[in-house]
Amino acid sequence: MSTVRVAAIQMTSGSDVMANESAIFRLVERASDMGATYIQLPEYATYWGPRSGYDTAAKTLGDGFIRQLGLEAKGRGLTIHLGSMLEPALDGRFFNTSVVIAPKGDVVAVYRKLHLFDAQPPGGVTYFESEYFTPGEEMKVVDVGEMRLGMSICFDVRFAELYRALALAGAEMFAVPAAFSAFTGPAHWEVLLRARAIENHAYVIAAAQAGTTAEGLATHGHSMIIDPWGVVLAEAGATDEEVLLADVDVQEVHERRSQIEVLRLRRPAVYSRVVETL
Q: Mapping DSSP to helix (H, G, I), strand (E, B) and coil, where does residue 189 land?
């Protein structure tokens, strides 16, 4: 079958790692009971709090929690996508790491966020992710059932060239787990997600953090599942945890790409030339 039932889980994670992990298993089981076989969790699913807690919250790929998620995936026949966690880096900082666990319980893809959120939006909160994080260096596409999944995290969504590269490598669905800013979210979140779907004729699954933590970290929420025509199939609210569901069909991707052949009609030889400035 070409159809996959997917779930985007919206969370309200905080600085209590054990509470976050408990919520992850509870919500994964809810999504599974609703028929989802690919379940995506948001960015910072295991810890969303101040720098003082990073060292304790950080996990390696061999961490017991990852093994537990593997057992959950195997027991229920799921693909579980941990949107992101803190992973120690060799330079003393951390990676913002996304992990896909297959139905056999093994880790089949690891993606480390390429683009770090260093921003000073007018009237917003200044934040420099690069103070604490090391950027990844690799793009990843992985099989999820009949679909090919291109991986990204949050701020990556502003870099269209990443998604075009993923589409050219075979991605038919993009993962955008996020903790998107409550300040920029109303203006940019939906527009950027729908643009990435439309310009590549791909599904977008975007599980997000919602609400405001005890330390004042405010996120936009509005997790979304979007089809290859840019239609929003499911959307969450702004503040609460939710489980979004949609049935995605790889044939829809192929149909839209045959109607408007944006991938075939590219002109990379021209793009590589120096731009004439007048």
A: helix
Annotated domain spans of the chain: 3-271
Q: Sort strands 38-40 and 3-10 into parallel, antiparallel or unpaired.
A: parallel
CA–CA separation, 213 and 260 (whole Å): 43
Q: What is the mean pLDDT of residues 109-127?
A: 88
pTM of the model: 0.96
Separation between Cα atoms, residue 218 and residue 242, nearest integer Å:
17
Q: Which residues are catalytic?
A: 43, 113, 154
Each residue of 227-270: pLDDT tens digit?
A: 999 999 999 999 999 999 999 999 999 999 999 999 999 999 99
Could you give the CA distance from residue 189 to residue 179 in angstroms, rounded to a whole number? Answer: 11
Residue with tokens 């990443």: 162
* Residue 235 and residue 224 in contact, taking contact as beta carbons nearer than 8 Å: yes
- Give the position of tokens 């003393």: 92
> Helix (H, G, I), strand (E, B), or coil: what is residue 102?
coil
Q: What does CATH list as the number for 3-271?
A: 3.60.110.10
Structure tokens at 148: 């090919």
Where would I find the beta strands (DSSP E) of 47-151? 79-88, 94-101, 107-112, 118-119, 127-128, 141-144, 147-151
Among residues 203, 195, 196, 194, the alpha carbon closest in space to that of 254 is found at: 203
What are the distances in angstroms from CA 101 to CA 186, 194, 251? 32, 26, 24
